[in-house]
Amino acid sequence: MGKGSTRKILCFQADMLNERLDLLADYPFARLANLIAGATPRSNEAPVAMSVGDPQHQPPAFAAEIIAANADKWNTYPPLQGVPEFRQAIVGWLERRYKLAGGTIDFETQIAPVAGTREGLFIAALLAVGRAKGGKPPVALMPNPFYQVYYGAAVMAGAEPVFLTTTRATGFLPDLGAIPADTLARTAVFYLCTPGNPQGAVATRDYIRKAIGLAREHDFLLILDECYAELYYGDVPPPGGVEVAHAMGRGPAGHPLDNVVCFHTLSKRSSAAGMRSGFGVGSPATMTALNRLRSYSCAATPYPIQLASAALWRDEAHAIENRALYKAKFAAAARHLGKLPGFYSPQGGMFLWVDVGDGEAATKKLWEQAGIKVLPGRYLTKNEPDGSNTGIPFIRIALVHDLDTVERALARIAQVL
Ligand SMILES: Cc1ncc(COP(=O)(O)O)c(C=O)c1O
């Protein structure tokens, strides 16, 4: 095939592709690769990647044992809704974690397994973004900075993404009172993350109550990304949407979880990101619709993974241990970086979000001088309407490695910064 015909095919393909794809900027890690391309670390020590939130602890051995013991089940299609044992384990965890009476959540109708919260967060937008609201294009609200999947989901579902500034002044959460009434009237979905990525802020009960109140009042779906719910460093666990919604009572359609769906994962709690196992919980109506959508679009969680996941949700000991490992790393961070003017210890999550003046310059410097890869904050933020970008001064540092590696990397970061 000659060069000309190849070009013709490429042109044809560009024409046939969904033009919404053009709105998806390069994923932050591609931008990071570009930023440091060609630069060689001068450090003699091995490079350390602290750019990606990729947990490096190990899940408990029993997970792999269960998967191996159920190897005879790889031949069949697993049930899309999950086997009862899996969903019962999830409900048991939810009721323990959020101090709900047994039987509050119905494992038959209210749980949808997902291949990691990423998948659930993406398809949840397709669930809620539909017809125009009030004759105008639907809006997807999300914090700024934000987990990129919220944006991708909003764009591909055909919503207009509207970014809500989160800065130190707003407690690193969107100011719910500042959302214009005409935006709320057009809102189809609102993504909220608690504890948040990248800033690690935890929404209070009152905050979540207000967000659910807005969802009920303006008839949109509040999508609570609670993937870091088990990585917290205060004395009390972060509150969750399920618990707050139940305390509020029935919603407009008669169920406490009307207008709310919460996503959880084993990726962070159990350091089992490779299992791709999470779930969504919501009202029976929402979850029936989500499962219907999944039956057209998603792969069911493999059977051996469902059984291993059930055991992980039932076990608390490893999650406590995992949290303690992160806690020790954040304490190390305070020791090494605590004197930086922009340093704070987050309430939850696995990241440091540090104001270093110029995040891209600091990222390059850290790579060149210390072989440490971090992520410039601006790759996680969109410009504000006035053209400014609140992420510019920041870097995000993922504390995902073992304590010793993190401790040595932090010492190198402290030296460079
Ligand atoms: C805020 C946030 N939400 C969701 C995810 C997706 O996690 P998973 O799909 O592994 O459950 C991540 C992963 O880094 C994240 O940071």
What labels describe this entry?
single chain; 417 residues; alpha/beta; Aspartate Aminotransferase, domain 1; Aspartate Aminotransferase, domain 2; seven-stranded mixed beta sheet; three-stranded antiparallel beta sheet; 41% helix; globular; binds pyridoxal-5'-phosphate
CATH homologous superfamily of the largest domain, by name? Type I PLP-dependent aspartate aminotransferase-like (Major domain)
Helix-residue proportion: 40-55%
Radius of gyration: 22 Å
* Structural class computed from helices and strand pairing: alpha/beta
Q: Based on the coordinates given, report the CATH architecture of the largest domain.
A: 3-Layer(aba) Sandwich
Shape type: globular
Q: What is the CATH class name of the largest domain?
A: Alpha Beta
Largest sheet: 7 strands, mixed
How much is the average pLDDT? Answer: 94
Number of domains: 2
Bound ligands, each once? pyridoxal-5'-phosphate
Model regions low in confidence, pLDDT < 50 over at least 5 residues: 1-8
**CATH fold name of the largest domain:** Aspartate Aminotransferase, domain 2
Number of helices: 15
In a nutshell, what does this entry contain?
About 40% of the residues lie in helices and about 15% in strands.
